[in-house]
Amino acid sequence: MGLLEERELAARQRVEALRVGLEQTQERWQRLVIARETVGEVLSAPAADGPTQSAEAASPVAAPRASPAT
User: Fold this and answer.
1) Percent of the chain with pLDDT over 70
2) Whether the Cβ atoms of residue 44 and residue 36 lie closer than 8 Å to each other
3) 70 pLDDT exceeds 60?
4) What is the distance between the alpha carbons of residues 46 and 48, in angstroms, rounded to a whole number?
5) What's the predicted TM-score (pTM) here?
6) Which residues contact 56 (CB under 8 A, 6 or more apart)?
7) Which parts of the chain fold into alpha helices (H)?
8) What pLDDT score was predicted for residue 7?
9) Which residues have C-beta within 8 Å of that of residue 26, sequence separation ≥ 6?
């Protein structure tokens, strides 16, 4: 195999590796877009559970109270 053929083979292998990497990246991007849309839909949907509670009221642990200054 001549030098030109070896370089062509190496270039073809690099191109194929780049195509595979691009395909994987596009699949990950598509999953990210779908997840982002889903989160947006969930956050924008009205609550179906009735009135919502604030974080303090929903917390089962009481927040520590500030001690009086001495």
Assistant:
1) 67
2) no
3) no
4) 6
5) 0.55
6) 63
7) 3-44, 55-58
8) 97
9) none
Retrieve residue 18's tokens. 């780049």
Residue at 8: amino acid letter: E
Nearest partner of 26 among 34, 1, 46, judged by Cα: 34
Give the helix/strand (H/E) hosting 70.
Answer: none
Tokens in use for 22? 């691009």
Other beta carbons less than 10 A from residue 27's beta carbon: 10
Whole-angstrom distance, CA of residue 3 vs CA of residue 59: 71
DSSP 59: -
CB 56 within 8 A of CB 63: yes
Token representation of residue 50 = 């009735």
